[in-house]
Amino acid sequence: MKFEIVTKWMLGFALMSAPLMASDEEPEEHIQVGSRALGHAERVLIQEQKYELIRKLENGDELTEEESECVLAEEEAEDGEVKSKLIKKSAGTSTTYYTSHEGATHHPIAVSLMGDTVQLEDGSIWIVSSEDRYQTFDWMTGDTIVIVPNHTWFSSYNYCLVNLNTGAKVKVNLSLGPIYNGIYTHWILAIDYSNREVYLEDGSVWKMSWWDSSIVNQWLPNDTVIIGINDGWFSGSNPNMLINVNMNDHAIGNCIF
């Protein structure tokens, strides 16, 4: 047992050391998280509105006319053809993940010795929940990571990193954004607010869900985004989510081009 623990610590240190030595030579500029974040009251109001709709859907309560039309549109979209690709099942579980954009798969390039931070290939750094840190000790650079929402209501952690090779799922918060103008960094070129379409620098076009319209309406061109997976409500028609680093929020959607 002791040998296994020591081995995991050594693996974590090996994964951590090379990238950290490289960054010491030439520090790189990262996008700051939440530079345009909404105030606490505004964020809480948006979340409460979403949770209220979830409660109605789960309990079968009556919806408003606008809510009914939007839910019907999402259900019809789920019945239609959405071009999403199966990534693969998570090791040790029956969970499968789908994506409409290749950028939803990530790789760890550094894990701190204590397992409290994970750095991904785009340079973004994530703080890991104290109760989950032990699960990151054996992560390797070749592992495939997906980012999903943390569905625990009112948790202090907004997301989860899922290692598809080990099956580990750890609660995280985004601490530092991707490298500015990095080769794996995505940002918004333009937004068509009336049609809820977001255009990224790689030429991809995203149709965002009505569900998150109030969030997307706050976004601006040049905002940096990280591509994640939506494994919650309306995932059939919205298999992905875009995490807006500048706003420190996310919205679900589908890459249509």
From TrEMBL:
Biological classification of the source: Bacteria, Pseudomonadati, Chlamydiota, Chlamydiia, Parachlamydiales
Give the highest taxon in the source lineage: Bacteria
Cleavable signal peptide: 1-22
Which keywords does the record carry?
A: Signal
Native source organism of the sequence: Waddlia chondrophila (strain ATCC VR-1470 / WSU 86-1044)
What's this protein's name? Secreted protein
